[in-house]
Amino acid sequence: MKVKNIIFSAVFMLPLLIAFSNCSHSDSAVNKANKGTAKKVAAAAKDTVPVPVTYPPLDKHLYDSLMKKLANGDTSGKWPVKNAPYPLPGAILPFKRVVAFYGNLSAKKMGILGEIPPNEMLAKLHGEVKHWEKADPQTPVQPALHYIAVVAAGFPGKDNMYINRMPNKKIDSAVRLAARAHAILFLDIQVALSNIHAELPRLEKYWEMPNVHCGIDPEFSMKDGTHPGKKIGTYDAADVNYVSSYLANVVRKYHLPPKIFIVHRFTRKMLTNYQNIKLHPEIQFVMDMDGFGPPDLKTGTYHDYIYHDPVQFTGFKLFYKNDSWLPPHHMLTPEEILKKYKPHPIYIQYQ
Question: Which domains does the chain have, with CATH numbers?
Answer without folding.
Answer: 3-43+67-350 (3.20.20)
